[in-house]
Write a structure and sequence with these properties.
CATH class of the largest domain: Alpha Beta
Largest sheet: 4 strands, antiparallel
Shape: elongated
Radius of gyration: 26 Å
Number of domains: 2
Strand content: 15-25%
Number of helices: 5
Distance between the termini: 86 Å
Number of strands: 6
């Protein structure tokens, strides 16, 4: 009789520990978010400050008046007159609670718009048709254009900060 009660007590302890472990695991999965970092600025390669920007604090700009622009690609023997049709839009950090929205809008639409559009043209002028047709090229172009745009927009700033966070790029190589 005594051995049955010991087994019952041990079984009850194991059941309680199992339930506690299950609740702890569920709690961790529900509350843990790996994308959230510590508050404050994140330093990316020592030169440009970057912050985690929620979607509601971003503003979008379309280059080339929101239309598709045609660029000549680098000539290849099999495709001497290749072109690419490109549509580019930028998502930029407008600051906490969009406090810098007017400043960023002025910076992009009035001061540096032609330089940003020129950078897109220069980027595609160095690309061949076979490169433009590859899927990896689109991803590389997005990353390269983000870096180029941030360099242009930070040309006269001493504490450089990341302004352009996303580039949406639609390419149709012909």
């Amino acid at each position: 009789m005594e051995s049955k009660s010991i087994y019952t007590i041990l079984l009850a302890i194991i059941a309680v520990l199992t339930l506690t472990l299950a609740v702890l695991i569920i709690f961790l999965f529900v509350t843990y978010n790996p994308n959230v970092r510590a508050a404050g600025d994140v330093q990316t390669d020592g030169t440009m400050t970057e912050r985690i920007v929620p979607d509601d604090e971003m503003i979008e700009f379309k280059l080339f008046n929101g239309e598709e622009k045609m660029f000549a690609l680098k000539s290849e023997p099999e495709h001497p007159d290749a072109i690419v049709l490109v549509s580019v839009s930028l998502k930029c950090d407008a600051g906490p609670k969009k406090k810098k929205a007017n400043e960023i809008t002025t910076l992009i639409t009035e001061l540096y718009l032609s330089e940003l559009e020129e950078a897109v043209g220069d980027y595609f002028a160095a690309m061949t048709l076979s490169e433009a047709r590859e899927l990896e090229t689109r991803y590389k172009a997005r990353d390269d254009l983000i870096n180029t745009f941030n360099e242009i927009l930070n040309a006269n700033k001493h504490p450089m900060e990341k302004i352009v966070y996303k580039v949406t790029l639609q390419m149709f190589a012909q």
